[in-house]
Amino acid sequence: MLFDTHVHLNVSHFDDDREEVLQRAKDAGVEKMVIVGFDHETIPKAIEMAEKYDYMYAAVGWHPVDAIDMTDKELEWLEKLSSHPKVVALGEMGLDYHWDKSPKNIQIEVFRKQIQLAKKVNLPIIIHNREATEDIIQVLQEEKAEEVGGIMHCYNDSVDYVDACLAMNFYISLGGPVTFKNATLPKEVAKYVPDDRLLIETDCPFLAPHPNRGKRNEPAYVKLVAEKIAELREQSYEEISTKTTENAKRFFGIK
Ligand code: NI
Questions:
Q1: N or C: which end of the chain has fewer CB within 10 A?
Q2: At which positions is a divalent metal cation 2 bound (predicted)?
Q3: Which runs of E-coded beta strand occur in the chain?
Q4: pLDDT tops 90 at residue 255
Q5: Any binding-site annotation on 96?
């Protein structure tokens, strides 16, 4: 059985065939998934789907690219949603220095506010990082994020930062890039992360694993991620799927 810790089935890419996508996930052995909402449209949709499907859980947060749009109203909304029985984490939140819609100082402020909220409501956090690793680690340390712990989502950075994440009670989640032929960093990370801190995800519809790279991603493909990690770690597929599922359930507090 597999646990896809990061899906965006709440976006329009799946409007035409959502039920078929869910059936293929089931057929591939995906037992549970966390659907991540990140703005005014995708957050209500994540909640709606988590209410509809018993195997689906929700995470809600404000994406760093849109940090400039987050006011106190949105923060209060996130706080209200955090008590929903199917909301298991806050996020995705973090820093994204690739896009310049939101200035860095505003991204950092919005990131800090969401970490503070997570500590207030006692939920773990899911981190989006693009070209901002050192600032992210600094903010997480300054805000004492280790009190709630979190996930470095779609980790695609040097193995050198993994220890700092582990020290803050973070888990490392790997996705499609670990299967890309020319991607060396996530492969090194896949071999390095301890058994009890490893998670898998698709981040669908983005980042489809090999051999579907460039196409729309979907939860069934998390199996390709697990197979690749098993190969890299010289462990069996069963071991990786069991371990990562156990880790995800423990992390999200799911029975
Ligand atoms: Ni995402």
A1: C
A2: 128, 153
A3: 2-7, 30-37, 56-60, 87-96, 125-130, 150-152, 170-174, 198-200
A4: no
A5: no
